[in-house]
Every structure is written in structure tokens, then in C-alpha cells.
Amino acid sequence: MQGLGNDFLVFDTAVFAADTHLDQGTLRALADRHTGVGFDQALLLETPRDTASRIFYRIFNSDGSEVEQCGNGARCIAALLYSRAPQLGRDLIMGSPGGNVRARVRDDGLVSVDMGIPVFDEPAVFSLPIEGNDIEMSSLSLGNPHVVVRVPDVDCAPVERLGPRIERHPHFPNRTNVGFMQTLYRNHISLRVFERGAGETLACGTGACAAVAAGRRRGELDAEVRVDLRGGTATVSWEGPAQHIWLTGPATTVFTGSIDLTRFTGAKQ
Questions:
Q1: For the chain, percent helix, then strand, then coil, each to nearest 5?
Q2: Is 70 a catalytic residue?
């Protein structure tokens, strides 16, 4: 599946053999776009862990590391669940390592997910020394860690150079996602995201939410913002502190099928 070019391999563990294991080496081999299938993240669908949820999902980056949350992945799973059982309604709750996520499949086909309440870890703006320069950024969590760096032009932003340096900076012991945000208007931004464990992706749902929350906290953005990403456009809605933030955009199934995972088991990590 893909949401705004952010692509996922979705596994339904209900059909797995009992002895099937998706270890880090297998995931890395599957993620290779030349010799595997290719994906930004793998999503594992498991039985729900509470009576309110329709499913529990886990998220693995293309480097095999497990992470807490994925906004576009959540939207894709919601679209998939609705397509399987539309009679259960357009509103659903899904469990994840980052907490339960409310989702709504809209009449126009777009999918909205409630990404919770943004939690800021630092003052509105702080600086870190990178390559001899102090880089200003904001730091927050949407169930997973993010920093947001303001840039004058995302097309010229040093994403590939600064992204991995910030991601692995000692200030972030568990690494972090890095967003490079250009503010166009109060209701319109452009964004590129260097994702933890995946590199730059065409879109990042929690990254879009983080950018809008950071801009709102600084008083620079409205409550509803169009976010242009390299893979398309999302909408983020956030009224402000103590309020839940919502992400809306398309979600598409690219293909369905099966794969013999034993061909990848034991692949080099």
C-alpha cells in the first residue's frame, strides 16, 4: 500500500505459519528495492489487544528497526480494514505501540487519523551544534520522536547531509525523525522528512503533524494547514495545546499477493 508515496508492505499475521519470524535481516532483505520487494515501512497486523480496537499493528522501518508510530501507515491500515468490512462503519479504533489510534474513512475516499496530542520535549526552539554550526529546531513526539528545522526553500534544503547527522546526534539517544519545513502561508507549508531508519521518504504522516504543531506553537500557522510533500498533499488540523491533531490524505492498495519468506530468512543484516 502507499499513502502519498510513503509505501508499505502490509503483513496479516493471521495467515502466517506458526514458525514464521520477521527478523531484522529478513526485513532488510524484503525492503531492498532491487532484490526484494521494497518499502519504507513494514506493517504487521495482529489480533487486537483490547475490546475497543479492530486490530493491533506494529511498524518496522526498512533497516529492520521497530518504531512506535506511523501516520500514513495508520491511514493505509484503516483503508484496508474498511475495504474488508464496510458494514462495520467508517469510524474505527486501531491499537499500536504508540497507543490507540482513531481513524475515519471519509465519503470522498480520503482517510483521517487522530495522531494524539503532540508532546514537546524542549522549549519552542533550541539549537544543536552540527558541522560547526548551531542549527535551530523544535523537538516533539507524536508517539515517535521528531525534530523540525525551518528552511527558506525545501528544494535546496540539505536533507541528505544534515538529516542523518541530526537523526543520530547524541542529543537523541533513540534517534529521531528530521523534518525540513518551509512556510509558504499561514495555512500552507512544504515539507521534506528524513525518517529514522528509512532515510528521506516521499511523505511522512507524523512528520507532517510534527511540522504543523511546531509552527502552531510558534504562532506562525493556522489551525488547518495544507502540507505539500514530495509524494503529494496532506491536511493537518490542530487547534492547539492539549488538543488532538488529525492527519488526512489518500491511501491506496497497490497490489495483494503472497511471498515465500523462507527465501529471505537469515539474510545479512
A1: 20, 35, 45
A2: yes
